[in-house]
Amino acid sequence: MLTLENVYQASFVLKDIIRNTGLIHAPKINPDVNLYIKPENLQVTGSFKVRGAAYKISRLSYEEKAKGVIACSAGNHAQGVALAASRNKIKSVICLPDGAPISKVEATRAYGAQIELVNGVYDDAYAHALKLKDELGLTFIHPFDDDYVIAGQGTIALEILNDNPNVEAIVVPVGGGGLISGIAYTVKTLRPDVKVYGVQAAGAPSMANSLSEGKILTLDGVKTIADGIAVKQPGQNTFDICSKYVDEIVTVTDDETATAILTLMEKQRLVAEGAGAVSVAAVMFDKLPVKGKNTVCIVSGGNIDVTILSRVIDRGLLKSGRLCKLSIELTDKPGQLRDISAIIASYGANVVSVNYEHAGKGTDVNSCIINLELETKNKEHIRQVKDGLTGNGFKLV
Questions:
Q1: Tens-place pLDDT, residues 18-61
Q2: Alpha-carbon distance 376 to 347, whole Å?
Q3: Could you give phi then psi for residue 373, rounded to 5 degrees?
Q4: Cross-strand bridge partners of residue 117
Q5: Helical H runs in the chain?
Q6: Gap between the Cα atoms of 71 and 78, Å rounded
Q7: Please, which residues have CB within 8 angstroms of residue 137's CB and are 6 or more apart in sequence?
Q8: Rounded to two decimals, what is the model's pTM?
Q9: I need a labelling partner for 173 at 20 to 30 A (CA). Which of 5, 67, 122, 264 fits?
C-alpha cells in the first residue's frame, strides 16, 4: 500500500543515487504565470524514472535480487531499471518497443541490461515482458503501476514543497500515471491546498479518457511525438490514485509540444523530450487555470532522439510563426523573384530557401510556382508579409 512513510523512505534510499534537481524560475515562458521548472531532464539517466525503479529494486528480497529483474519501457524506465540493477549488481532484462529511439535503446544497453526489442508499442512490450518473467523467474519492475515505484516518483513532490513552500499548482506529464500518482498523493497528503494537474498528448489520452468515463479505458492506438507517454491503458493503482487526488488532466497537440521543446531550448537552455515538455506546453497555451499562480512544471525527461530533433524544431518554429512556407503562382518571366524578394525584405523577413517548379494542370502554360521558406518574427509578421505580396498583385497558393 502507498504510504507517506514509503515516500520519505524512498527519499532516504535515493539520496546517493539521484540528483536533487532544483527549481528553475522561468517567467518568460508565460508572462501571466509565475512559473518554475523542475528539470528532471537533468536527472541521472536523463529522466525521473530512475527514482521509482531504484526504490522498487531496493525493496526486493535477497532471493529476488539473485534471480534478476525484468522491465518494459518506451525508453526512460528501461534506463532507470538498468542503472539501478547495475548498482545492485543484479541481472536486468529490458523489453522495448522496436520503435523506441535508438539513443534510448543504446543508453539502456550501456547500463548493462540485456535488450529485447518487441514489435509494436509499449503495451506489446509489456505483454512480452510478462511472458519472459514467468519463463525466466525474474521479478517484474512495473514502469508505473506499483506502489514502491509510485512512492519513488513521489520524492519529486517532497523536493518541490521544500524548495518552494509557496507553490500553488504543479503540472505533471502523464502516461501510465506513475509520476502524477506519486506527486499527487504526496502533495495532497501534505498540502491539500496545492492543485495538481496532469497533461497528456492528444494522440494518447488514455488517463484523461478513463477519468472522464469513470473507468479504465484502452485506446485502439496511440500517435504522438511524446513517445515516453504513449500508453494505451493506465494502471489500476494509478487510475485509482488519480481519481482521488488529481484535480484535472488536459491534452496538448504535437505542434504545441514541439513549440514547448523549442521554447525550453531557447529561453531556458534545456533540452526536453516530447513527454517531458507537455507540461510546459499546457501552461504556454493556457490549457490550465494557473494565471497569476506560483506554478511548477515537471520537465520529466530529456532523452530526445537527435535524429528527430531538427524536425521537432521545425514544427515548433512553424507553430510559433518563426518559420513560414509560401507558394506563389507567377507568370514565368524575368524579374519576378527580384520583386518578391524586395517586398519580403521591406518587411524584415529573411528568405532561407527558394524552390522553382512549373505550374500544374489547370493553370496557364506560362505559369510557374515559387516555393519560399522565410524566417519571420511571429504570426502577425507573417500576415504582414502575405498582405504585402497580395497587395502588390502576387497570388498565394
A1: 999 999 999 999 999 999 999 999 999 999 999 999 999 999 99
A2: 9
A3: -120, 125
A4: 96
A5: 4-14, 49-58, 62-67, 76-87, 102-110, 122-136, 147-163, 178-190, 206-213, 236-245, 254-268, 274-284, 306-320, 336-346, 379-391
A6: 7
A7: 67
A8: 0.87
A9: 5
